[in-house]
Specification:
By secondary structure, the chain is α+β, with helices and mostly antiparallel strands. The protein contains 6 helices and 15 strands. Strands 8, 9, 10, 11, 12, 13, 14 and 15 form an 8-stranded mixed sheet that branches. Strands 1-7-6 form a 3-stranded antiparallel sheet, with no helix packed on it. It has a two-stranded antiparallel sheet with strand order 2-3. It starts with a strand and ends with a helix.
């Protein structure tokens, strides 16, 4: 039977031993000097935080087959089968909550490195949904049962990849500077007489220019869940990343948690595109002169570092007339995003009413103007 690290929620609620891992030995992470620069690197880090060199202790082979494991409830003694894709469990017999930690060599997956705890309570998240669904409520379908929908709202830790990297660019462009000349011209005045006037005409002087630009980028989060596309994840950002804490299993007690399904390299490609766009904009704002054209930027990235973070999100997904809708709440800041059904019959009624009202006003104006 595979070994599990188990954390009981009861062991971390309300006493000074909160965060203690039960039935396993857990040692505090110790820094190992980086072979390249000597900076201490914790065992969980894949890369050196100073120079970005790979951490050789992170090289672990994936297992050929997932072992069968069971979790014994420490309160009532019942046993539950575990799934390596799931970290948090609730005992169906006594409602005790547990967190299961599989070793990386068992799952072939990277262990989370950082986590942000929930600051928004489930009650506050439900109230945010009620406020959000009531906005423009007249255009909502009459048979939409918001009370039944809100019961599906769940708090879940979702995986996000955080990257930092150095961008070095070679750029070339044509730079323009404005200058003004005085121009004399003639035109006829209101009486038909020719008069001479002067005006300022703007001209642009162009010349080629080339140079280098570099910047260190960090703090962009890429969704590690295929169920949450990056476009929807951007809707509840930003998260306050200074609040990140080193991951400990007890953070997940009582909450759902999703394993990442977007691999690091796939997420890195998404992040590179974002940082390329930022570098392009950064070079454009850096250029001298009043205007520019034909800007070409060639960028190389180095010192790439990544962290796997678990971030708090309240997720509500429901169907209405075979259409999928989703509502999200940032569990740290309370920012909301989502889409909701619209009653097009009511929209057409409102539009028709507006057209009728406009026609009445036009007829009334014509009658009063007689």
């Amino acid at each position: 039977m595979a070994e599990l690290e188990v954390v009981s929620a009861e062991a971390v609620r309300g006493d000074e031993n909160a965060g203690q891992v039960v039935d396993c030995d857990v040692t505090a992470p110790r820094g190992i000097p980086c072979e390249s620069c000597g900076c201490p690197v914790e065992p969980e880090d894949k890369f050196c935080p100073a120079c970005g060199s790979p951490n050789p202790t992170q090289a672990a082979a994936a297992p050929d087959a997932a072992p069968s494991t069971f979790l014994r409830c420490q309160n009532c003694g019942s046993e539950m089968a575990t799934d390596q894709r799931q970290r948090s469990y609730v005992c169906p017999f006594c409602d005790s909550t547990y967190v299961v930690e599989f070793a990386p060599e068992q799952t072939g997956r990277q262990r989370p490195e950082f986590v942000v705890g929930f600051a928004v309570t489930p009650e506050q998240a439900r109230e945010k949904f009620q406020q959000w669904i009531r906005q423009n409520s007249w255009f909502r379908p009459g048979d939409l049962r918001a009370a039944q929908i809100v019961d599906k709202q769940k708090g879940i830790y979702l995986p996000f990849w955080s990257f930092s990297m150095r961008a070095e660019s070679q750029w070339r462009a044509t730079i323009g500077e404005y200058w003004y000349r005085t121009e004399t011209y003639t035109q006829r005045d209101s009486k038909g007489n020719l008069v001479t006037r002067t005006r300022q005409v703007r001209e642009t002087e162009w010349w080629p220019l080339a140079g280098r630009h570099h910047r260190y980028y960090s703090g962009y989060l890429v969704s590690g869940s295929r169920g949450l596309p990056q476009r929807e994840a951007n809707g509840v950002m930003p998260f306050q990343l200074p609040a990140l804490k080193r991951f400990q299993p007890y953070f997940l007690a009582g909450w759902l948690c999703e394993e990442y399904s977007v691999a690091r390299e796939e997420a890195l490609a998404v992040c590179r595109q974002e940082f390329l766009a930022r570098e392009q904009a950064g070079v454009a704002s850096f250029l001298p002169g009043d205007t520019h054209r034909d800007l070409h930027v060639e960028t190389q990235f180095s010192h790439v570092n990544s962290d796997l973070c678990l971030l708090p999100v309240y997720l509500l997904t429901y169907r209405y007339r075979d259409q999928l809708y989703r509502f999200l709440v940032n569990g740290q800041t309370g920012k909301v995003a989502g889409n909701k059904p619209v009653s097009w019959r009511r929209v057409l009624l409102a539009a028709g009413g507006g057209v009728v009202l406009l026609a009445i006003l036009i007829l009334l104006a014509m009658w009063l103007g007689r």
